[in-house]
Amino acid sequence: MQFILTLQDFIILAIAYAWVFGVIVTGELLRRWQNLPTTVTRKIIHLFAGFSIFTVPFYSQAWIALLVSFPMLILIFLASPRSPVKSLRTMFGVMAREEDYLSGHIWGPFLYAISINLLVATFTFFPNLIPFFVIPALGLTAMYLGDGIAPIIGTKYGKHKYTIRNATRSLEGSISVFISSLLGAWVCWLFLDVFATAGTSVFNATQIAILSVICAISATLIEAISPSGFDNLTVPLLTTLIIFLSAMVIYPAMLAIILTP
């Protein structure tokens, strides 16, 4: 592993940072323009900011993506209403839920960032796992879109409620998790394994169709049973694990590739 960045790496890093901060600023501008609650900004960030991981195939070394995700993790942790840095106080105000003001930390986005860092690190620091980066991307997209859209749909259209572990959700919200995760999985594959790698995907269309359904079902069930506030961690990590194990079953050569010296 080398630690020298090329000019292209710096350009892609700049694009990734521009995307993340562009999503944050756009969400906040839309909120102020329409005089909406901060939940709107938080949801826009939840839905779109994480797609900065789509820059991974374009770096000279895949681990460079962590130069975006890890600093964001630190910034989110440091953001608080008591921060001496105004921009971090603003970040807290944009992302915080009402209960976050009691602890002084924005735990939902923090867990969101932890999931991204854990999965990106695992599938970029180990060279034999890099060809399978679409797998964690599926799990993360299930968090971005599925877990992000579910409360929106559930709040507006959720008429059939159910409660598991003191967390109340709706059937309509769970269906939206399934549909969003399924569609998101195909977006991941088309971009990461077709467009970004010039069609050299390790998975064919049939295999990705199977993995997409597994992803959608897993994300839906995990989101439904996750303790309130922890789905930003449980959905991407457990969904990725299930997809990874399933991929080894439908693509037997995968284990040999991973274990190749």
Explain what this protein looks like in three dimensions.
By secondary structure, this protein is mainly alpha-helical. The chain folds into 2 domains: about 5-125, no CATH class; about 125-260, no CATH class. The protein is about 70% helix and about 5% strand. Strands 1-2 form a two-stranded antiparallel ribbon.
Helix/strand layout:
Layout: H1 7-34, H2 38-48, H3 66-78, H4 86-95, H5 100-103, H6 107-125, H7 134-157, E1 161-164, E2 167-170, H8 171-195, H9 205-225, H10 231-250, H11 253-259
Helix pairs in contact: 1-2, 2-7, 3-6, 6-7, 6-10, 7-8, 7-9, 7-10, 8-9, 9-10
Outline:
With 261 residues, this protein is mainly alpha-helical. The protein has eleven helices and two strands, in the order αααααααββαααα.
Keywords:
single chain; two-stranded antiparallel ribbon; 11 helices; 261 residues; mainly alpha
Number of individual domains: 2
> Please, what is the oligomeric state?
single chain
What gap, in angstroms, lies between the N and C termini?
14 Å
> Count the strands?
2
